[in-house]
Amino acid sequence: MNFLKRPRILLLSAFFIALLVVIVARLQSNCPARGIAISPGVLARLQLKNRTTPPERADFDPRITLATLLQPGDDRARWSPSRGAAIEGYVVAVYEGSLEPANCFSPTWRDTHIDVALRPDAAKRERFILEVTPRVRDWAARRGWDWSTPALTRELVGRWCYFEGWLFFDSAHDGESENTAPGRARNWRATAWEIHPVTYLRVVR
Questions:
Q1: pLDDT per residue over 12-61, tens digit each?
Q2: Vertex 131, ends 109 and 72: CA angle to 5°?
Q3: What sign does the dihedral 187-188-190-195 (CA atoms) show?
Q4: Which of 68, 127, 54, 135 has its CA nearest to residue 95?
Q5: How far apart are CA 79 and CA 167, in angstroms?
Q6: DSSP string of the chain?
Q7: Which domains are present in the chain?
Q8: In 3D, which of 74, 52, 38, 17 has the Cα closest to residue 193?
Q9: Can you give the pTM of this predicted structure?
């Protein structure tokens, strides 16, 4: 390599890294509650995902338990995204979600996925998904609660926990859910219904 070119390459690399940092920061600080929506239908879904106000007592559907959410059968119309839910179950896994339009595709501002089941060794197709969003994570931090992915992994996995939040049917995953696409090899969840976002959680035991 021509050693005279090395400073120029390093300078360009530093410039692009700095530009990426600025872009990521802008995505995070200026991402609207509607996310990046490309149609009215997507807009409605993203606004539901990005709710930050916890459900009131009257919003909760009293029929809902983890067992009823996992009940087999096509469940697209079984529940309503205008209702809240409170459930208990074993936390099988906690992991970071992918880049998505709800979070303006920010690589540093992602949902935390929480897999919950009726037993700690449940297969993926027997699990229910809950999600902590970046907006709710910030809301929790202002109350002194650390809902970061590492903290939730450390505190919740393998424990019986209690959760509250809003119901949401994630139609992007109805073809990967046992209830709406029974028997498919790629299924990694029981249902496309989620608690999304989670607005309260605690370890029971």
A1: 655 445 444 444 445 556 899 889 988 888 899 999 999 999 999 999 99
A2: 150
A3: negative
A4: 127
A5: 8
A6: --TTTHHHHHHHHHHHHHHHHHHHHHHHHH--TT-S-SSHHHHHHHHHHT--SPPPGGGB-TT--HHHHT--S--TTTS-TTSEEEEEEEEEEEEE----GGGTT-TTS--EEEEEESSTT--GGG-EEEEE-HHHHHHHHTTT----HHHHHHHHTTSEEEEEEEEEE-GGGGGGBTTTSTT-TT--BS-SEEEEEEEEEEE--
A7: 42-203 (2.40.50.140)
A8: 74
A9: 0.86
* Both structure tokens of 142: 């202002």
Q: Give the bridge partners for 133, in sequence order.
A: none
The ranges of the chain with pLDDT < 50 are 15-16, 18-25
Query: Rounded CA gap, 153 and 87, in Å?
Result: 19
Locate tokens 């208990």: which residue?
88
Q: Residue 115 class from Cβ within 10 Å (0-12 exposed, 13-18 middle, 19+ buried)?
A: buried
Provide the β-strand partners of residue 136: none
